Amino acid sequence: MQLPMKASVCSVPSSYQVYSNMEAQFAMTAGVLSFLLALATLASCNTEGDILYAQRLAWKDPNKVLQTWDPTLVNPCSWFHITCNNDNSVIRVDLGNAGLSGPLVPDLRRLRNLQYLELYDNSLNGTIPATLGNLTKLISLDLYDNKLTGAIPTTLGAIRTLRFLRLYENRLTGPIPASLGNLKRLEILQLQKNALSGSIPSSLGNIKTLASLKLNDNRLSGVVPLEILSLVISGLTELNIAKNNLAGTVRSSGFRVTTIIQDKLKTA
Question: I need a surface site. Which of 105, 115, 176, 254 has the fewest CB within 10 A?
């Protein structure tokens, strides 16, 4: 009589102990995962803060607009001119007309959730880092009215989310990359008032969403590709190609275009 009783008593605590152990292990595993996730988020935020602080050190900031960029804080989301998403990851850098000078650091590429990089109307110099092509969530890249030199990186053609690319009024040289034709969501492409040379790539005609294309005041040569002119059918409302070395172009009428500005037809 006692043996079954003993076995029964022993079996109940045994199964209960197994269940408790499994429950404890599950709770511990869940806790570890939560901790690791929080740690990863914190590490990501710290990494983005480190990147932006490195950029701050590379710039001259006479107006002290970057005073709040404190690397000792947990993340950069409380810094002025920085916007984060709900995961405390940087999605906007808004520093237009801030009086900044100096180069762009290549490590900006590691701001993996960045959507808006607004650095227009400053005195930034040096080249546009090719690494910016890694910003695969970027919607707007505004670097206009600075002192940037060198070529437009071909890697920018990899940012398929880009809708606004404004690099005008710099000192950029070299050709317009044909890879920009991969930007199928681009609405604004403004590269005017640089020293760009070579021909206008016909691949730009692939951007059916393009509404404004301004290439004036450069050193472009050749003719305007028919693929570009065909964009007026899909919604191009502004095309400015004047003050280049283009040949054989005439004013177009009969297209759904608000403004086409170009040089007069060259005659013999």
Answer: 254
Banded model confidence at residue 70, pLDDT cuts 50, 70, 90: very high
pLDDT, tens digit (0-9, with 9 covering 90-100), for 210-236: 999 999 999 999 999 999 989 988 889
Distance CA 92, CA 90 (A): 6
The helix (run of H) or strand (run of E) holding residue 96 is: none
30 phi/psi in degrees, rounded to 5: -60, -40
pTM > 0.85: yes or no: no
Tokens of 69: 């960029």
Nearest CA among 140, 261, 243 for reference residue 194 = 243
CA-nearest of 211, 160, 214, 155 to 182 is 160
pLDDT, averaged across the chain: 84
For residue 39, give the amino acid letter: L
CA separation for the pair 160, 97 (Å, rounded): 27
